[in-house]
Write a structure and sequence with these properties.
seven-stranded mixed sheet; 567 residues; elongated; 27 strands; binds magnesium ion; binds adenosine-5'-triphosphate; Ribosomal Protein L25, Chain P; alpha/beta; 13 helices
Amino acid sequence: MSDNQPKDFIRQIISHDIASGKHGGNVVTRFPPEPNGYLHVGHAKSICLNFGVARENNGKTFLRFDDTNPGKESEEFAKAIERDVRWLGFDWGDRLTHASDYFDQLYESAERLIAMGKAYVDSLSAEEIREYRGTLTKPGKDSPDRNRSVEDNMDLFRRMRAGEFEDGKHVLRAKIDMHSPNMNMRDPTLYRIRHIPHQRTGDKWCIYPMYDFAHGLSDAFEGVTHSLCTLEFEDHRPLYDWFIDQINPPHRPNQYEFSRLNLAYTVTSKRKLAKLVEDEIVSGWDDPRMPTLAGMRRRGYPPAALREFCRRIGVTKKENLIEMAALENCVREILDHAAPRRMAVIRPLKVILANYTEGQTEKLSALNHPNRPELGSRELPFGREIYIEQNDFMEDAPRKFFRLRPGGEVRLRYAYIIRCDEVIKDKSGKVVELHCSYDPDTRSGTGSSDRKVKGTIHWVCASHALAVEVRLYDRLFTVPDPAASDDVMEHLNPDSLETVTAQLEPSLGEVETDSLFQFERLGYFRPDDIDSTPDKPVFNRVATLRDSWAKIEKQALQQQAKSLRLR
Ligand code: ATP
Ligand code: MG
């Protein structure tokens, strides 16, 4: 374990177990995704925890697909999950397993429960079973089939397996306690009939085990020591233990629960994410706005940023909503160091330097990174026509606006000081061009004048600039907790994607697809994996330089406080 890793309650339990020799001092964990969707940032927390604690203690981690629901699951999802776990930086070695690998053993375990009188075949309909189950305030009722003989149960269960009955005709249930205050203990279903071929076992089975039954026993079969799951399984733990107690396998796993990761302004539920994909709100599971690992990879988040984020949020039993900014700050911290700087203008405004000789260009030198001299420098062409950012000019600028205004001066980064002499507008009054003059004595680094001005802005040379598609991403939702609403679609952010044609410095014409840049004063950008070609890049904005939402939220809160004071 790294020194700065605080010990959370799970790591404390594990240290304690190692010290006391429980599980022979071994640490074996598993990450058990259902292959019915792509992994999201919440799964990253679970992956970092499961693989992390094993790695820290020379243990092992299984990647086990919980594939007990044929029809909803697919190999495409399974492959995507493998790729994402690997991308996040974890390796399961030869421990890639499936709940379906244990279908034979699970079936045998079910027969053993029947033989012990601990399981019975119930022929009530699904609706009747629900009715008989009672509620949180009302105890359940025994099914008339609860006292079937072991022989009858065994015979019926074998015939269920042999395919003699249609879906829903019978189920196998554990015989525990219909009066238990814990609903999970009211004779839970162990097996149901489903005449659906399975993506791995084909037609071999027409009965499939339920998650609770399959999960704990699969843990036991694999020798898992610490089965780490999210808090919603806390009430399932007595059942988890009950199965282990009855079957009494050589290895006894223990389940521990921690709180889910909930990230503000997004959703971390595969079902809700699937809906965004199905309704074509996003371009796919790997849309760069999605909180999926595939989306974040395509957006350009470094996997180390996600690992660092998971380290910082820690592992507790307390439910909470984590600020998106916490994740973005991890991304920014890594990219600030890693990303070479470039110049790009995303909302161009043409500037003509009237006193610069027509047809002339010169080369100016620009540092690739302000704090990493080893990254060297590059040349920027400069000429009579340049682009600056529209919002770096303001006609009626407030006093503290240190960029360009009529009659005002600003420094062009790595170039000259310019003065705005004339503002050209179209018929509607929109500013379309600025006529400026440059001061030849103020060339960066070499100029004879040491004149200083307050503001420095970025620019590109119009005659050399590349017009390139740039995609600006923002939050998918407009409210911090969209999942709290009945219909998350109500809160979609209509501006979560804005596509602009930006003007880029010419060195960005030929870039590797996995390269990453800071466009000065704008943010971090990288070519899109899928839509970029070597001669026609498309850039994604990975992150802005600062958290613009923090400002918006702060303003909203201040506004609110002010109106409260006024009342
Ligand atoms: P979803 O609700 O998104 O469908 P799930 O729990 O059904 O998620 P699984 O594929 O079963 O998805 O999850 C695999 C593992 O990831 C489980 O152990 C689960 O507890 C964990 N997990 C899922 N979501 C989160 C989350 N938001 N935070 C932490 N762990 C999570
Ligand atoms: Mg689940």
